[in-house]
């Protein structure tokens, strides 16, 4: 069901990750993604994966919610893994005509699959433990230097956060509309591709209407509260670094040192 998709949702809890500064969490998420795509062998990749798994454990979010976040890209993971199997070099383990499977192809497929999965999990740690308000403030503070050259930083941060927040709402609305159409006898699961696309038309039209209505209501609510952007606007909760954040920075520095050592000393696992 579409309602099971956890993309963009925030889950309140009392954990180290929830107490951490949102600016630091954004920076560490980017740091984790850089580690994932810079890993040259399985040992350095295992270190990056372990670092992300540690963040998942410290968030105190149930594992099933992280697994649900992988549902939307499950097809992409499988498709990419299968595709990389047939593009390896070296002696073939199995061959049929021009199609061959090699040891390097299998290693590359495993490497790429782990990268995609950990990329989504790292992003999920950020969104699961950071509220939309905190995310907006953090993005705005991180991009504040760009405001000096005329970039509308506050509007950009607000737009990104609202878009992220609307994802679960629109998925929930889609699920309700599809259930209502099925209750009226609509068949959306049988027939060819063209028939299935036509069956989605009664879903898309009310979905767009609902999305525009939500956007209009939000704009009206913000206007009625005299909202005028980030210039001179005060904040109820100020962002500040604590002991948890400094400890996270030190651990990131240690992980970076170990990661560079593993990448330099050990040979690469991917053969291009």
Summary keywords:
2 strands; mainly alpha; 272 residues; two-stranded antiparallel ribbon; 2 domains
Structure description:
- The protein has helices at about 15-20, 20-40, 40-60, 65-70, 75-85, 105-130, 130-140, 155-185, 195-225, 245-265, and strands at about 90-95, 100.
- It is mostly helical and about 270 residues long.
- It has two domains: about 1-130 and about 240-270, no CATH class; about 150-235, no CATH class.
- Strands 1-2 form a two-stranded antiparallel sheet.
- It is built from ten helices and two strands.
- The model has no long low-confidence stretch (mean pLDDT about 80).
- A hairpin with a 2-residue loop joins β1 and β2.
- About 65% of the residues lie in helices and about 5% in strands.
Question: Helices, strands, pairings?
Answer:
Blueprint: H1 16-19, H2 22-38, H3 42-59, H4 63-68, H5 74-85, E1 92-96, E2 99-102, H6 103-129, H7 132-142, H8 153-183, H9 193-224, H10 243-265
Antiparallel strand pairs: 1-2
Q: Given the helix and strand composition, which structural class is it?
A: mainly alpha
Number of helices: 10
Low-pLDDT runs of 5+ residues are none
Amino- and carboxy-terminal Cα gap? 39 Å
Please write the string of helix (H) and strand (E) elements: HHHHHEEHHHHH
| Proportion of residues in β-strands | under 5%
DSSP E strands, number: 2
Spatially, the strands of the biggest sheet line up as 1-2
What would the average pLDDT be, to the nearest integer? 81
What does the radius of gyration come to?
A: 23 Å
Instruction: Let me know the largest β-sheet.
Output: 2 strands, antiparallel
Q: Number of folding domains?
A: 2
Overall shape: it is flat
Q: Helix amount, in percent?
A: 55-70%
